[in-house]
Predict the structure.
Amino acid sequence: MESKLSAAWSQEQIFHFDDNATRDEVYSIDTPPPTASGSLHVGHMFSYTQTDVVARYKRMRGKEVFYPLGWDDNGLPTERRVQNYYGVRCDPAKPYDPHYAPPEKPAKNQRDWDMISRRNFIELCETLTVKDEKVFEDLFTTLGLSVDWRQTYRTIDDHSRTVSQRAFVRDVRSGNAYTAEAPTLWDVTFRTAVAQAELEAKERPSAYYRYPFKDSAGKEVIIATTRPELLPSCVALVAHPEDERYQQLVGSTVTSPLFDVEVPVLAHPLADPEKGSGIAMICTFGDMTDVTWWRELNLPTRAVIGRDGRLSGDTPQWITTPQGRDHYQQLAGKTVHSAKEAVIDLLQTSGLMRAEPEKITHAVHFYEKGDKPLEVVTSRQWYIRNGGRDAERREQLVERGRKITWNPSFMRSRYENWVEGLNGDWLISRQRFFGVPIPVWYPLNSAAEPDYDHPILPAEDQLPVDPASEPAPGFAESQRGESGGFMGEPDVFDTWATSSLTPQIAGQWERDSDRFQRVFPFDLRPQGHDIIRTWLFSSVVRANSLHDTVPWTNTAISGWILDPDRKKMSKSKGNVVIPNEPLEQFGADAVRYWAASAKLGADTAYEISQMKIGRRLAIKLLNASKFAFGMGVTEEHVIAPGSDPTIITEPLDQALLAKLRSVIEQATEHFDNYDYARALSVSESFFWSFTDDYVELVKDRAYGAQGEPAQASVRATLATALDKLLRLFAPVLPFATDEVWRWWRHGSVHAASWPEPSELDAVAGSPAVLDAVAAGLTSLRRAKAEANVKQRTEILSARISGPQQEMDSVRSALQDLQAATKSQVLELESTEGAPQEIVVSELALAEAATA
RNA sequence: GGAUCUGUAGCUCAGUUGGUUAGAGCGCACGCUUCACACGCGUGAGGUCGAUGGUUCGAGUCCAUUCAGAUCCA
């Protein structure tokens, strides 16, 4: 059923975007491009279904839905996957081998992996991502996503590279992007700079080591530090300006132990009197606080840690005493880790350690994909202004956030928290291979040294460019690296620098302006709350500087998927569920039901039981429909504006449709508020009362036992109810509903319109009638259950008593009730006074046989 | 340290702007092979709404304090 319908939707082009629609008619969705090199996860099914439910609803509401889906395939995750999958490594110095073929199986030992050229490496990235993307597309199709697959993009394809480079060139020209030599967070494993958004703070055990500096009088000033290996790069000591212990020292100089470097003692409010001994070493650079001190106190740079994470092999020239130079020689070339041990050893043998190390745990910054703490090194990088260094721009970006409707609304405070906590501009250059090249060149002077202050930008019609293989405008390739020539920028963009432009990429910015103005700013950005600080924020930054607007007007934030024990699913815990399993076991509709019954923003457990309910609902929908069609229901029986409503003669039938009308109203309202879960639950509870009570009550009449007009009334009611119900469930259960739709209607339910309450204007009636009769039905069923007889046992006579109004309602459907409960005589009695329950008494049963 | 979310039946959750006796599904108990459906149907038991105080004629819902869990930011 599922593959048959998927094929039909594709063939009937139901999800194709029509470029003739006006902006008002369009509903555009900027979907997260999944990282195809990552593993498939049930979380993908969860959040993408939630988006799809909205897309299908909007389509039925008559919107021309623009629903593309891209693949985020550039960057480090892909590089790592290619390395591990093929067993290769990139060596940019190697020449290109046009006949290269990767090993059949990757070598077990990383040392035996093939070293291949950058171009060969990128070719493998291209091959593997295409393969991975197919797997994702298959899953999403099976899940029933109503994506327009013609609009697919890849964040590494020519178009994406062009958009990314164009946006960058414009940002450079408008001053929103710039290059600077500055201290930068650096991952020594991946040898690349890292942005604030990619940080992860992890609690790590560490220890304070205490040792003395000496003032001019030879008095000891004890400092406590967790990073004694940075002692050779110490440029100052710092204490809080109001810390009385150190006030008289501020302004004087002290001499460092082991290395005999004279450094000033300074005051700064960021020094925490509670931490360690209250006075800290400033080293260039131990962390971002050092960077702040260095900048605000105008300190010199004394870097000793290189990009490889090792201490410089040359003894720094600021260490001048023979003893100091000797001590440094014992550290030169060591990794941070062994340098730390060596310094501790030196301090101990010199008798300078003033206390036992004090063990602590503290938060250390890691690259989210790395496993070594980040270092701070000075390097030349490209930045995009994001308000991190500019209060006015920050305020502007907070304001943009307020122009977006957040679903759920509280997610906005995550955005504002993040924006307000920024401490620097967005670093967008990465020292990697598989990414969008930064499209700049630098002129070389007569000594072949680059002039970074005058980068050469490409013309926009030249894009995309690769400065590593194409010469700078106005130069010949032969001038590369020559004095008076040029050099290409070797770095690539951070993946977010491209991903932040998905609205521009999908909307064909500057490539098809007609398309772009129809879809931008987009109507909806769905995504997870983990990437508010990255993808969402960076997109707002780009739209702000490039278009002076928000990128979208609504955002729908999905929750996380937790395992049934409320733990986050992760590979290392071994609790990951492969998406195909539930799809095969329960079907796409069931999985979608599970996803669609969770509210936006709510972290949700992976619940098989919820999927079982979904499957039961889908099957019930098929069976109830079969019943209706078995009763001779056809398309002609559907009551629509213009058809004769007087055919619905029975108050019970009128009551059902009156109730349905209010269900439609409520479901529509909830859907409009992006509360698809409540829309579903409203429709669902109506549907169960429809099958359990209404259908049971009218069976006798449907078989024709009460004459033709009464039967015609049922047929019209069943047809009309089914017509609305199938459409109400279509966004969540696209397969079951369309299957049924095609049994008796033309085309697909997904091309049909969302039901309107006005479709039922012609039918008058009170929902209370159904409630009262259903209550009577339940009372009689209960009476039989309590009498311990089978439900099909005949009732010779019984008395039902209850409030006057309810008894009137019951009387209006007495024949149906009698038939459904196999009752020969039902006596109705109105009770006086306060509202009372419906009570069954004086029950006389046909057979004495107990159940 | 700052911010946000969550706490309701054994479990998973709903409960809109305060308004009768707090709901659903699963699970549990009992019963039913009823002519759409055993991938099913019926009936039932089960809750002092985390705690305390306040506002109100009236609080699961609003306010304050507090406890527990989670997340984000620093």
Q: What stands out?
A: Chain A has 24 helices and 27 strands. The mean pLDDT of chain A is 90. The CA atoms of residues 89 and 115 of chain A lie 5 Å apart. The radius of gyration of chain A is 36 Å.
